[in-house]
Write a structure and sequence with these properties.
This protein is 20% helix and 26% strand. By secondary structure, it is of the alpha+beta class. It has two domains: 3-64, no CATH class; 91-294.
């Protein structure tokens, strides 16, 4: 920028004087006098110093602003808005270490959204699958009160996960159905399905992952899906008090997680069909099996 243009830009801030520029054929231009130039530099330096202080103060204030869970020790539980509470109260249970090896929201074994699912051409009906049965497996009909076997709206295949590349792979082929959409009554409460397992203190399952419309429940005290049964539920409205407790425990390091008692309510059904998937020792099972889950 030329000098005359520069001082014109800050002409409102520094003293200036008119002078005759012989190089411009008698045209008068706005420019700095000797005194004005000195004042201009002083004002400019003061302005720059003020801007630096303001920017620095903003950055420091931002860096020192505590998160809600650091502001009040050990944490503050703030219920999330949007979902109607079920009326239940929730407690935590200690987790068998180690905690999950990555943030739960980024773990494809805990957050089913990372895997996703695609429609299956298999039958969207309950069926009888031969083979051994675990009498202590979760009885999925008790997800509802009173217990029932709701209609299956659609059958789906969950995507497998490529752990080497860190991305989803092809849809799981065996079994042919790994998630089902269930017809539900909007707003009805959902309850922890009964099982024959006891995690201690009367609890049957941990909340391994939760967000507003998705939850993952585990019937052992490990922070993984390697052992025991894991239940994934999609398109639900998680109780905001349970969700707040989960988020607090997750941020605190997952040494404890929310725990549910048999039959305890934890969410409400939404307008859309409820998505359900169940796993045994990490493997996705066929949720249509009457013998295993719906007797």
């Amino acid at each position: 920028m030329h000098n005359h243009a520069f001082f014109s830009a800050i002409g409102r801030w520094v003293p200036v004087a008119r002078f005759r520029d012989s190089r411009h054929d008698g045209v008068w231009r706005l420019g700095p006098s000797t005194v004005g130039r000195r004042w201009g530099y002083a004002w400019l330096l003061a302005l720059l110093a003020t801007l630096i202080l303001l920017m620095g103060g903003t950055q420091v204030a931002h860096a020192e602003s505590p998160t809600p869970f650091r502001q009040f020790l050990p944490f503050t539980i703030i219920p999330s808005a949007g979902c109607t509470p079920t009326g239940a109260s929730y407690k935590t249970l200690s987790v068998i270490p180690p905690p999950t090896d990555r943030p739960a929201a980024e773990h494809p074994d805990l957050n089913l959204r990372l895997r996703g699912y695609t429609p299956s051409s298999a039958s969207a009906d309950y069926l009888w699958i031969n083979g051994p049965t675990d009498p202590h497996a979760p009885l999925l009909s008790t997800l509802f009160a009173p217990a029932r076997r709701p209609g299956i709206e659609k059958a789906w295949r969950i995507y497998d996960w490529d752990w080497t590349r860190g991305q989803r792979s092809e849809p799981i082929q065996d079994p042919p159905v790994t998630l089902i959409s269930l017809d539900v009554r909007p707003g009805e409460t959902l309850h922890l399905p009964d099982s024959g397992y006891d995690l201690g203190q009367g609890f049957e399952a941990l909340v391994l992952y939760a967000e507003t419309h998705r939850i993952t429940l585990k019937y052992t005290r490990e922070d993984n899906v390697i052992w025991g049964y894991t239940l994934h539920l999609e398109n639900v409205c998680v109780d905001p008090n349970l969700l707040a407790l989960y988020r607090a425990m997750d941020q605190a390091g997952r040494q404890q997680l929310p725990a549910l008692r048999p039959g305890q309510s934890f969410a409400r059904a939404e307008e859309t069909p409820l998505g359900l998937a169940i796993r045994d020792t990490g493997r996705f099972m066929d949720p249509r099996s009457i013998k295993d889950w719906w007797q």
